[in-house]
C-alpha cells in the first residue's frame, strides 16, 4: 500500500511555510515556528486504510490551532491518536492542557477546538471516524485529551509502530480488517476487561513478538541473551515470553535461529573479512564445529559454501526452513480475524 505524500520541498524556500499552512486549511491554522528565510522543508504522508487514515508528518516545529470557527466550517469529529517516539508534544483541548512525553501516545478529537505544539520530529497519527468505532464510542469520548502513559499504552504505541512499518506491504484485504484491529487494541488500552483482552489477543501476541524480535536483534552478540534479559527488556513475564515463542520451538531455539540468520548475512557480504570461526564466536556459538553443523542443518549448505559463492557473485538462497517467525504468526494473521 502506497502513501499519498505532500511535500513543501519543491516550492521556493520563502514560500514553504505558507504552502504548509495552506495544505491544512480549513481544518487547522498552522503556524510554523521558524523564520521565513530559513525555509520549511516538511512532508505529510497519508495512508487511507479502510475507514481510517494513518498519517506521518515530518518537519520543523509547528503550532496547530483549531478554533470554534474551524469546527463549524470543517465539521469533522474524528478521534485522533497521536504518537511521537522522539520528542514531547503539547495540546490544549476540551478544557485540558495535555503534555505527552516522547514515546507516549495521546488521544484527542477534531470535534473540539485545540491549540497544539510539536517540535521537529516525525509524528504518527491515526484519524478514526466515529462511524467505524461505534463499539468504543463511550470509552474514546471519556479518554479525549488524555495521555496513555501506562504499560497498556506502551503496548498500543508499539503496535502503532508495527503498523507503520507494515503499511507498505499491506494488502487491500488486510486494510479492510485494520479498523477492527485498532479498535481491539484501544479497548485493551482504555478498558482492559477480560472480553477486551480476548478480542485483542492476536494483536497483543504480535506486538509482543515484535518486541522480542527487536530485543534479540539488538543483543545477538551478547552471551547473556536469554529468557531473563528478554523478559526485562521486552516488558514481559516468563509465561508471556514462552507462549509467544512456543511455536518457534522455544526461546533458545529462536535466539539460535536469529543468530544463524545473521551469520548468513555476514558470510554473504564480500566486504566482510572475518574468519568463519570469528563469526561463530561473536555470535556466541561454542565453537566453529558446532556452528558449522547447525548452520548446515538450518540452510542446507555449509558456511564455507556461502562465503565461496558470495566471492564468485553467486547468490545462495537460504533453505525454506529458515523462516524465523512461528507458523501462522504474521501481520496479516493478526489484523483481526
Structure notes:
This protein folds into 2 domains: 4-148, Jelly Rolls, CATH 2.60.120.10; 200-337, Arc Repressor Mutant, subunit A (Orthogonal Bundle), CATH 1.10.10. It is 42% helix and 18% strand. The chain has 13 helices and 12 strands. It has a 7-stranded antiparallel β-sheet. Strand 7 and strand 8 form a beta hairpin. The chain is globular and about 75 Å long. It starts with a strand and ends in a 26-residue tail after the last helix. Mean pLDDT is 86; it is low at 328-337.
Lay out the secondary structure:
Elements: E1 4-7, H1 16-23, E2 29-32, E3 43-49, E4 52-58, E5 62-66, H2 68-73, E6 79-83, E7 89-93, E8 96-100, E9 106-109, E10 114-118, E11 123-128, H3 137-143, E12 146-147, H4 151-166, H5 172-190, H6 194-199, H7 201-218, H8 227-234, H9 238-245, H10 251-268, H11 276-282, H12 288-299, H13 303-311
Antiparallel strand pairs: 1-3, 2-5, 3-4, 4-11, 5-10, 6-9, 6-11, 7-8, 7-10, 9-12
Helix pairs in contact: 4-5, 4-7, 7-8, 7-9, 10-13
Largest sheet properties: 7 strands, antiparallel
Are there runs of 5+ residues with pLDDT below 50, and where? 328-337
Strand content: 15-25%
Record field, number of beta strands: 12
Oligomeric form: single chain
Alpha carbon gap, first and last residue: 20 Å
Give the overall pLDDT as a whole number.
86
**CATH level 1 class label of the largest domain:** Mainly Beta
Domain count, please report it.
Answer: 2
- Provide the helix percentage: 40-55%
DSSP summary: helix tally: 13
CATH architecture tag of the largest domain: Sandwich
**Any idea what the radius of gyration is?**
24 Å
How are the strands ordered across the major sheet? 1-3-4-11-6-9-12
Amino acid at each position: 500500500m502506497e502513501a499519498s505524500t505532500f511535500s513543501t520541498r519543491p516550492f521556493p524556500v520563502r514560500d514553504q511555510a505558507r504552502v504548509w499552512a495552506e495544505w491544512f486549511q480549513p481544518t487547522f491554522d498552522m503556524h510554523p515556528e521558524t523564520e521565513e528565510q530559513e525555509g520549511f522543508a516538511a512532508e505529510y504522508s497519508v495512508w487511507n486504510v479502510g475507514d481510517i487514515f494513518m498519517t506521518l508528518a515530518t518537519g520543523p516545529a509547528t503550532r496547530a490551532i483549531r478554533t470554534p470557527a474551524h469546527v463549524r466550517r470543517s465539521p469533522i469529529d474524528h478521534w485522533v491518536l497521536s504518537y511521537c517516539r522522539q520528542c514531547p508534544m503539547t495540546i490544549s483541548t476540551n478544557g485540558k492542557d495535555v503534555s505527552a512525553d516522547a514515546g507516549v501516545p495521546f488521544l484527542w478529537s477534531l470535534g473540539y477546538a485545540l491549540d497544539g505544539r510539536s517540535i521537529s520530529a516525525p509524528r504518527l497519527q491515526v484519524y478514526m471516524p466515529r462511524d467505524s468505532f461505534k463499539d468504543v464510542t463511550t470509552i474514546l469520548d471519556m479518554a479525549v485529551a488524555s495521555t496513555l502513559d501506562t504499560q497498556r499504552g506502551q503496548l498500543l504505541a508499539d503496535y502503532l509502530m508495527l503498523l507503520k512499518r507494515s503499511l507498505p506491504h499491506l494488502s487491500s484485504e488486510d486494510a479492510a480488517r485494520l479498523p477492527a484491529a485498532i479498535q481491539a487494541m484501544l479497548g485493551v488500552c482504555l478498558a482492559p476487561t477480560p472480553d477486551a483482552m480476548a478480542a485483542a489477543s492476536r494483536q497483543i501476541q504480535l506486538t509482543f513478538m515484535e518486541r522480542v524480535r527487536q530485543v534479540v536483534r539488538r543483543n545477538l552478540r551478547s552471551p547473556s541473551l536469554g529468557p531473563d534479559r528478554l523478559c526485562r527488556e521486552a516488558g514481559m513475564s516468563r509465561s508471556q515470553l514462552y507462549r509467544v515463542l512456543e511455536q518457534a520451538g522455544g526461546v533458545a531455539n529462536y535466539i539460535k535461529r536469529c543468530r544463524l540468520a545473521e551469520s548468513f548475512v555476514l558470510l554473504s557480504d564480500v566486504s566482510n573479512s572475518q574468519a568463519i570461526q570469528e563469526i561463530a564466536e561473536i555470535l556466541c556459538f561454542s565453537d566453529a564445529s558446532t556452528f558449522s553443523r547447525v548452520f548446515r542443518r538450518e540452510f542446507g549448505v555449509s558456511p564455507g559454501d556461502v562465503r565461496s559463492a558470495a566471492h564468485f557473485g553467486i547468490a545462495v538462497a537460504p533453505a525454506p526452513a529458515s523462516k524465523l517467525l512461528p507458523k501462522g504468526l504474521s501481520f496479516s494473521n493478526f489484523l483481526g480475524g
